[in-house]
Write a structure and sequence with these properties.
SURF1-like protein; 326 residues; Surf1/Surf4; Surf1/Shy1; transmembrane helix; alpha/beta
C-alpha cells in the first residue's frame, strides 16, 4: 500500500548507480570494437611451411640444379666467346696469307708432284700453270651442289701431261640437266690445253659425309684419295680458274670467241673457281652470340638472387604488422 500511495510499483534507482552501469557497459563494448578493425594493407597469406617433406625436398634439389646451371652459363658462354675471338684472329691471318699467295705470279708445275708438299697449307691457294689433255672418259662428279638456287655438280676430269703423269683437275660446276656428256658437247675440249689453276689443300671428310661407290664416278664430297685412285692420278687437288675461253668452240666459224657465265651455264661448260679466297668466316657472329648470352644470363642470375631475398623482408613486415594490432 505504501508503494501505491507513492504512485509507483517499481523501486527508484539512484542517479549515481545508473551512471556506473552505463560506464561499465561502455568500457566492455569499446575494447572488442577496437580489436575488430581490419587493416587496409592487402597482405598475401603466409605459407605455414607444413607441406609434404618430399615435395619440399624435390623442389629444393631442382632449385639447386637450376641455380648451378645459371651460375655456370655466364662463365661458360664468356669462355666460348673469348675462344671465338682467338679463332677470328687465326682466320683473319689465314685469309690474309691466302690473298697474298693469290697475288703472286703462277708457278710451272714440276713433272712429278710431291703430294705431301703440294697438298699442304703452305701451297694452298697458290696459282699454277698446267698443260695436258683431258680424259673425258674418266670424268667424275661431286655433288649435288647448289649454285644460285640451282642443283648441279662439280666436274672432276683427269688431265694427262706429256711426261706421262696425270693430274686431278676440278674443272667447275655444271647444272644437273647437263650431267650427261651428250647434252654438253662444248665442255668436251679436245687436244692439249693450258689452264691456270689453284693448288688446294686436301679437304677433311665431314662427320656425316657418305663415301662414294667404287666405279660409280659419283662422290658426295671431295675424296681426293679415292678419286685419284679411280682416275689413275696423283693425289693432289687442283682447281681450274674461271676461263671464258675454255669452251670447245670452232673459232673459225663462230662469232663468239668466248662465253659469258650465263652462256657457260646454258651450254653445260664447267664454271671454274673465281680466284677469290672463300674461307668461311662466321666467328664474329659467334662472338656476339656467346658474349650476349653471358651478359643476359648474368642479369638473369642477379635478378633471381634479388627475388629470393624479397620474401624474407616481406615476412618480417607482416610479423611487425601483426604485433601492432594485438
Amino acid at each position: 500500500m505504501n508503494y501505491l500511495q507513492r504512485g509507483s510499483l517499481i523501486p527508484r534507482v539512484s542517479l549515481r548507480s545508473s551512471n556506473v552501469l552505463y560506464n561499465s557497459f561502455k568500457q566492455t563494448t569499446r575494447r572488442p570494437l577496437a580489436r575488430s578493425v581490419t587493416s587496409t594493407v592487402d597482405w598475401k597469406p603466409i605459407r605455414s611451411g607444413r607441406s609434404s617433406g618430399g615435395v619440399n625436398q624435390r623442389s629444393s634439389v631442382y632449385g639447386k640444379i637450376f641455380m648451378g646451371l645459371l651460375v655456370l652459363m655466364p662463365i661458360v658462354s664468356f669462355g666460348l666467346g673469348t675462344w671465338q675471338v682467338k679463332r677470328l684472329r687465326w682466320k683473319t691471318t689465314l685469309i690474309s696469307e691466302a690473298e697474298s699467295k693469290l697475288a703472286l705470279p703462277p708457278l710451272e708445275l714440276p713433272p712429278v708432284l710431291n703430294p705431301e708438299i703440294a697438298s699442304s697449307s703452305e701451297f694452298d691457294y697458290r696459282r699454277v700453270i698446267v698443260r695436258g689433255t683431258f680424259r673425258h672418259d674418266k670424268e667424275m662428279y661431286i655433288g649435288p651442289r647448289v649454285r644460285n638456287g640451282k642443283d648441279g655438280f662439280f666436274i672432276v676430269t683427269p688431265l694427262e701431261r706429256k711426261n706421262g703423269s696425270t693430274l686431278l683437275i676440278k674443272r667447275g660446276w655444271i647444272s644437273k640437266e647437263h650431267l650427261d656428256q651428250s647434252t654438253r658437247p662444248m665442255s668436251l675440249v679436245q687436244g692439249e690445253v693450258e689452264l691456270e689453276c689453284l693448288l688446294r689443300a686436301t679437304p677433311e671428310k665431314g662427320m656425316f659425309a657418305v663415301d662414294g661407290k667404287p666405279g660409280s664416278h659419283h662422290y658426295h664430297f671431295t675424296d681426293v684419295a679415292a678419286m685419284a685412285e679411280e682416275g689413275g692420278c696423283q693425289p693432289v687437288l687442283i682447281e681450274a680458274l674461271l676461263d671464258f675461253d675454255s669452251a670447245n668452240i670452232d673459232r673459225r666459224n663462230s662469232a663468239e670467241n668466248s662465253l659469258s657465265i650465263e652462256q657457260m651455264e646454258r651450254h653445260g661448260v664447267p664454271i671454274g673457281a673465281t680466284g677469290k679466297v672463300e674461307f668461311r668466316n662466321t666467328h664474329f657472329q659467334y662472338i656476339l652470340t656467346w658474349y650476349g648470352l653471358s651478359i643476359f644470363t648474368t642479369f638473369m642470375l642477379i635478378s633471381l638472387i634479388k627475388n629470393k631475398r624479397k620474401p624474407k623482408s616481406q615476412l618480417i613486415r607482416k610479423l611487425e604488422h601483426a604485433r601492432k594490432n594485438q
